[in-house]
Amino acid sequence: MKRSFGRNREGLPKVMRSGIPTLDLLFQGGYPMGSLCLIEEDPRNNDALNISRCFLGEGCVSDEKLFIYGENLTENLIPDIRRIGDGEHKSSSVQWRYETFSNTSLISEPYCIDLASTASNQRNAVFGVLSPSIDDSYKNLWNTIRQDILSHENANAGRVLILSMLGSSWPKLSYSDIYQFLNSLKTLLRTINGVCMITMPTNTLNANLLNLVYSSCDIILSCESVEGKKSSMLRIKKAPRVLGNINYETIPLRIRDDKCTIAIEQLTAKKHKLHQENA
User: Fold this and answer.
1) Is 78 exposed, middle or buried (0-12, 13-18, 19+ CB in 10 A)?
2) What Pfam families does this protein's entry cite (predicted)?
């Protein structure tokens, strides 16, 4: 392949949209190409999975190749979109929906990812069912992902999703294998203008393994349920380097459900205080 890590006219890394417009606003357009993004799972909610599904749905709209890996996979992982009429949520504007500013989008009118639906056209999706308990599982996973991507080298930018990595059935003794896998994956992503999202039950990992994972990832998002609340809190533990030294962990963010879509909204100081008092 002759692809390289592309840059736009302003000299900033190109980005891949997340499928959640309000999150892209925070990240100045989306996930930078070549990024490894970790979504920390909370067993009390499906937010990590929903963020991942938005990532896939946006890739489907943009005609990008999707490489999806996990132990239990179904085709309903990839959601469809819902077109938005002129009168629907007009006041929300680009705060939660996508306008027609994407050169790669196949849709010429405003839309949002509809998590209650399933994409009918999944021709660009590659599914890989994993058996992580076997010997050399990380080497096998790396070979599978690498071969899948290289066999589709003429496709548009690729999106890789690994669901529940380091779950209960995954081997965790060989830190060197895990480190080598994650860093080899990052190198591959930079050659194809791709982004990889990994969901992970990090609450089950020991401190040493967790530090290894954190240091290997470019972006870390944590979805945390709040007792007595329908919405969850989102913590940006590690933001893309291009955003500078902003401490996103101090910014209170809420994951809000909105008619089978999700939005990330920043809580005002007053709302955040009330939220803390009522939690």
Assistant:
1) buried
2) PAXNEB
